[in-house]
Model the fold of this input.
Amino acid sequence: MSDSPAPNKMAEPDAEEWQTRPEAARGVGQRLLRILAFRVGRPVARVITYAAALYFMLRRGPDRAASRAYLQRVLGRPPTPWDTYRHFLCVSQITLDRLYLMVERFERLRVRTIGLELLDSALDEGRGVLLLSAHLGSFDALRVLSTLRPEVPIRVLLDLGQTAELSAHLNALNPAMAATVLDARRPGPALVLEMQRALAGKAIVATLADRLRPGNPALTADFLGAPAQFPASPWLLGAALNVPVVLAFGLYRGGPDYELHFERFALELPKNRRERQTALQGVVQRFADRLAHYTRLAPYNWFNLYDFWALAENRTPRSDPAADQRADPSRES
Done:
């Protein structure tokens, strides 16, 4: 067997393909999930996730193909139908638990922290913390920090245009938490100013750093043995804000168990344009390496159900330094 098996052949996506993919549970389905979660209870609702996972695995051909392509890379072998079903089941169960995390009912779950002292050390510097994660496991598990460090505000940067239904459900379930969300679609200078204000108040500002949005600068890094494109903007933003950066991954371990991993991440970009581009490439590669590490720890936790590698394989990566400068918040007036 090859060390880097080729994934199943899929149609070439464009940069907006993942954004236009419909959510797995919409409208009536999401309302039903809320009823099951809060009126029937988690044990019964979890039984339903087994059927839901099978339904979506059978109905969503592109998602199923993307799952196989990813699993072949992370497992290092051709995935079986059982592997694919486990992947969909894991996503389904994490989606259910997301509801409890949204309303901060942490007693339903067990969240173990690993490396929390690294986050504490970063917070103790008094500048706020930029917390970066990915679509792996439960980003919402970070909400448990509200019980561990209740004095620290948490602001989450989300694309509200992409997650409109999620935003509506969050408003219905927990308006106070919804008010802490920062909209990633706000104009760059306004968004950076709002983040600076939050960080000046010693807040944690959390966002995801793995999905490339259309029109944003990208850099290509090796990820699970093949080139993939990652956004440059989170790292340009982190350098501009000049605050400690911490990686965080909430891995689902089955049943009620989650592991919340924290890592301090060094981020310093030189002013010289050429040196800055080289350093930025190294930063993105280091993030891709850490993300690969955690995907191997919890391979079925992957939420990017589109071909994550196809854009880099089929198209010329964008590496326009002038474009990178325009996207760099530090250069906004």
About this structure: Residues 1-15, 22-28, 316-333 have pLDDT under 50 and may be disordered. Residues 159 and 185 are 6 Å apart (CA to CA). The first helix runs from residue 17 to 20. Residues 17-315 form one domain.
